[in-house]
Design brief:
Blueprint lengths: L6 H14 L4 E14 L4 E2 L8 E8 L3 E8 L11 E12 L2 E9 L18 H5 L12 E12 L2 E8 L14 E10 L3 E9 L6 E9 L5 E12 L13 E15 L2 E6 L2 E4 L9 E2 L1 E7 L4 E9 L14 E10 L2 E10 L9 E11 L1
Antiparallel strand pairs: 1-2, 1-3, 1-21, 3-4, 4-5, 5-6, 6-7, 7-8, 8-9, 9-10, 10-11, 11-12, 12-13, 13-14, 13-15, 14-17, 15-16, 17-18, 18-19, 19-20, 20-21
Length: about 350
């Protein structure tokens, strides 16, 4: 029987959420990115942020909540092409157990510059084509169910099951995505955690194990080893070959602040195990330095995601941003002058003035 036909269960879940939201806190935010001017002129939602949120809305109390996000490209041809990016409801039948239905996912350790750029051990071809380029969902992501269980204060267990709504659960043949996670907090030191994600039959499996540290005042850091088991190195390719270890990502992040100065950096490295010339290992980097003033934070940032392969094609072509962030009364702004150095001989340097705006209610 499909999830949509499990009416007693669905009705019970809805009643539990609606009943629990009578005395709830509500919040909403609108987020927009774009480019004020530059080599490509003016545009909203540049290519790096093409799926930026138009509206995020959530309502929560101690026992239940609901959440959804809308997004649009906001270009001239799709000015009204608004889509639901994520929607879910959650409730707590007991204080230690949180149940979610809808668009679910659960993360382990995530860098705090972009908050979603977590490598997956993918091949360079997959990475540069955005085929599983990043994923902060350690258990899985999609339409389904999720449970978070905290039997004791410092231990978190989570499981995600994403068959897609309307799927016949009793006809499971290995195509359903699922994942599990365990994380233990060590008071005054940090935490350790592990997760496993199965993307279905003949699809990649991703295992993670890592730790973070916060024992030193002003310092936060984590290190995660991510193993990818796959049967193809091609971008958007399918295969029925046996799944085997194809890549290892060493994800990392460090942040240090003292007085008004803050430094943040990430240097994820992906090692491909086959050693083939067409499947090179590669890395990225992203470093940001900021100085906090009253309501205003100037910063300098340098980063590069592509062309840093461990072979003869390695090319340093950084992106520089000199800008400022500021916020007041629920609104935050980020604008910078950006320079993209060319990665190919004879190519032109590009410049732009990107911006981000978020207004929260």
């Amino acid at each position: 029987m499909s999830i949509l036909r499990r009416r007693p269960l669905l009705i019970a879940c809805i009643l539990a959420v609606v009943g629990g939201l009578v005395f709830a806190d509500m919040s909403a935010s609108v987020y927009m990115t774009g480019q004020l001017w530059g080599t490509d002129g003016f545009k909203l939602n540049n290519q790096e942020q093409k799926d930026a949120d138009m509206l995020t809305f959530q309502i929560n109390n101690e026992r239940a909540g609901a959440y959804f996000r809308l997004w649009s490209d906001l270009d001239e041809s799709n000015a009204v092409d608004v889509k639901v990016r994520s929607a879910k409801i959650w409730f707590k039948p007991i204080s230690q157990l949180k149940m979610e239905i809808g668009g679910v996912e659960y993360g382990l350790y995530t860098e705090q510059l972009n908050w979603w750029k977590v490598p997956t051990g993918a091949s360079y071809a997959q990475f540069t084509s955005w085929d599983t380029r990043w994923s902060s969902a350690a258990t899985n992501t999609g339409a389904g169910f999720q449970a978070e269980f905290k039997p004791i204060d410092d231990l978190t267990l989570a499981a995600t099951f994403t068959p897609g709504f309307g799927t016949m659960i009793k006809e499971y043949d290995g195509n359903t995505d699922w994942g599990v996670l365990a994380k233990y907090n060590i008071q005054g030191i940090g935490s350790v955690g592990a997760a496993y994600r199965d993307n279905g039959k003949d699809q990649e499996k991703i295992a993670r194990v890592g730790f973070d540290l916060n024992a030193v005042k002003g310092l936060y850091a984590f290190l995660t080893l991510i193993a990818r088991f796959d049967n193809t190195a091609g971008a958007y390719a399918s295969s029925t070959n046996p799944v085997e270890l194809m890549g290892l990502s060493i994800d990392n992040y460090v942040a240090y602040s003292i007085d008004k100065i803050s430094l943040k950096g990430r240097f994820p490295v992906t090692l491909r195990t086959k050693g083939e010339a067409s499947d090179p290992s590669y890395m990225c980097y992203d470093v940001k330095a900021a100085y906090s003033l009253e309501g205003l934070t100037p910063y300098f940032r340098i980063q590069q995601e592509e062309k840093l392969t461990f072979n003869s094609d390695l090319k340093f072509a950084p992106q520089f941003n000199l800008g400022a962030e500021w916020g007041y009364d629920g609104a935050s702004f980020n604008v910078s002058f950006q320079v993209n150095m060319p990665s190919e001989s004879g190519a032109e340097m590009k410049w732009s003035i990107p911006f981000e705006v978020r207004v929260s209610f």
